[in-house]
TrEMBL record:
<keyword id="KW-0067">ATP-binding</keyword>
<feature type="binding site">
    <location>
        <position position="155"/>
    </location>
    <ligand>
        <name>(6S)-NADPHX</name>
    </ligand>
</feature>
<dbReference type="InterPro" id="IPR004443">
    <property type="entry name" value="YjeF_N_dom"/>
</dbReference>
<feature type="domain" description="YjeF C-terminal">
    <location>
        <begin position="219"/>
        <end position="485"/>
    </location>
</feature>
<feature type="binding site">
    <location>
        <begin position="399"/>
        <end position="403"/>
    </location>
    <ligand>
        <name>AMP</name>
    </ligand>
</feature>
<keyword id="KW-0456">Lyase</keyword>
<feature type="binding site">
    <location>
        <position position="122"/>
    </location>
    <ligand>
        <name>K(+)</name>
    </ligand>
</feature>
<feature type="binding site">
    <location>
        <position position="137"/>
    </location>
    <ligand>
        <name>(6S)-NADPHX</name>
    </ligand>
</feature>
<feature type="binding site">
    <location>
        <position position="59"/>
    </location>
    <ligand>
        <name>K(+)</name>
    </ligand>
</feature>
<dbReference type="InterPro" id="IPR030677">
    <property type="entry name" value="Nnr"/>
</dbReference>
<protein>
    <recommendedName>
        <fullName>Bifunctional NAD(P)H-hydrate repair enzyme</fullName>
        <ecNumber>4.2.1.136</ecNumber>
        <ecNumber>5.1.99.6</ecNumber>
    </recommendedName>
</protein>
<comment type="function">
    <text>Bifunctional enzyme that catalyzes the epimerization of the S- and R-forms of NAD(P)HX and the dehydration of the S-form of NAD(P)HX at the expense of ADP, which is converted to AMP. This allows the repair of both epimers of NAD(P)HX, a damaged form of NAD(P)H that is a result of enzymatic or heat-dependent hydration.</text>
</comment>
<keyword id="KW-0547">Nucleotide-binding</keyword>
<feature type="binding site">
    <location>
        <position position="362"/>
    </location>
    <ligand>
        <name>(6S)-NADPHX</name>
    </ligand>
</feature>
<comment type="function">
    <text>Catalyzes the epimerization of the S- and R-forms of NAD(P)HX, a damaged form of NAD(P)H that is a result of enzymatic or heat-dependent hydration. This is a prerequisite for the S-specific NAD(P)H-hydrate dehydratase to allow the repair of both epimers of NAD(P)HX.</text>
</comment>
<dbReference type="Pfam" id="PF03853">
    <property type="entry name" value="YjeF_N"/>
</dbReference>
<keyword id="KW-0479">Metal-binding</keyword>
Amino acid sequence: MFTAYTADQIRTAERALMATLPRGTLMLRAATGLAAVCAAMLPRVYGSRVVLLVGSGDNGGDALHAGAVLARRGAGVTAVLAGSRVHEAGLAALLAAGGVSRKPGGGDDVRRAVEGADLIVDGLVGIGASGALREPYAGLAETAGHAAAPVVAVDVPSGVDASTGRVEGGAVRAAVTVTMGALKTGLLVDPGAVYAGRVELIDIGLGPYLPGPDVAALTRASVRATLPRPAAASDKYRRGVVGVVAGSDQYTGAAVLAVGGALHAGAGMVRYAGPSRPVGQVRARWPEAVVTELDEPSIDDVGRVQAWVLGPGLGTGRWARELVLRVLATDVPVLVDADGLNVVAHDVSLLRRTAPVLITPHAGELARLTGAARGDIEAAPLAHARAAAAELGVTVLLKGSTTVVAEEGEPARVNGTGTPWLATGGTGDVLSGIAGSLLAQGLGARDAGSCAAYLHGLAGRIAADGAPLTAAAVAEALPAAIRSLDEESARSRLP
Ligand SMILES: NC(=O)C1=CN([C@@H]2O[C@H](COP(=O)(O)OP(=O)(O)OC[C@H]3O[C@@H](n4cnc5c(N)ncnc54)[C@H](O)[C@@H]3O)[C@@H](O)[C@H]2O)[C@@H](O)CC1
Ligand SMILES: Nc1ncnc2c1ncn2[C@@H]1O[C@H](COP(=O)(O)OP(=O)(O)O)[C@@H](O)[C@H]1O
Ligand SMILES: [K+]
């Protein structure tokens, strides 16, 4: 499991570590790691042009010291000193190594340097930042955004809140973020994750001083360890039976896709219940599902299940409302998605039950549930998922380009295994089926949600392979995704 921390948690740990070391040691460790990543991104260091955007704090100090290392190896390094102050020791090191400095007010000079660079290092602000970038930082971040060279962000992309991932105004878009000591939450959740690019973690010895994490991200190894596997003596009932109440005569595909997700995620059996049209399609597509055609909105004749998937394509009329009430009245875990959420939005107290509830909204569905504005949720998904989990008393899996799973009293889980190709109709229905299948196999709501998001993202990558995918292909790629957890070569990478 990868773990990530808020700026305050990092600062506290850093103070404790720093007290044990000679002054300046940590920054040199950080800068050495940063310089190595920069050097690896250049075809060759000697003769290349590197521009450092340097703020007034230690983030700028990291950039200057790394710049000194690159200058000693023959790079032409220009530091743009954007702050009213500068890290003196860092600047002295850079100048001694042959680097030069500029002030951002110096006409077109700085713009030309940035545009002509082979590599740009963003050392404007790190975990000491507060609020939107002020000038001249904001202008420099924008100039860097127009440059052809890749940007390496020091610790966090400037403009991204390290603790929350929030971006007020503009922020630096990094190809790579070199983060010091430990991952920051803002690098793993939207919108910050989008600005961070690839994240490289530099070990500066902070580990023993870190508290419990703010958020965690599953790895291949942790998913492999969590995922239920059939034992020698397993039978289909003991492996877990999942019931799917989804689809309507209008939305038949949602039923097919949710059942497809459930079938490929390891449940011993999938029971599907719905009206005649989706029943016909589920039967035709998935002969292995046990299907009950409903004349009435009742689940009395469906048979026993260990968890329900409720909602994709269900509609929101009387039929749907009746089914939602009946499924939520059972005593097994329930996953509520899509129209199931639209129905309970009228009375969220329906979600209060003894057995676990996992809800899987996208930002629009969460907005209908909590009354928050969709834009506010998208700007701060982690905070909104946490607030909804506390307010509704359920586990919340909030979908987006990164997915957040929040449960009160536990570190949130974040997932970045997906691909933008997943942004296509029906992939959410597949995710519901997967997570419901894992609930039926006995995982708790947080594990079921986060493992489902992980596998769904991985299956999305396999299904897409650089081209458009279909939701059905994501369901069918699940076995390959699960198999890949065991591959020796499939080393866990930072998200
Ligand atoms: N504390 C430590 O032990 C270590 C810190 N390191 C580096 O130090 C950084 C933190 O350094 P600092 O605490 O000096 O803080 P920063 O360098 O992140 O920023 C501090 C200064 O930036 C300015 N500022 C803040 N918000 C701004 C905004 N929105 N617009 C424009 N200017 C703004 C303020 O003048 C503030 O004093 C880390 O992110 C990391 O890069 C590393 O060297 C590792 C060791
Ligand atoms: N840009 C993206 N990058 C990665 N995953 C994405 C992106 N956009 C959407 N997804 C994923 O695709 C799925 C879409 O689900 P949802 O919004 O419910 O769509 P639908 O209702 O059409 O099934 C979610 O799992 C979401 O996390
Ligand atoms: K930075």
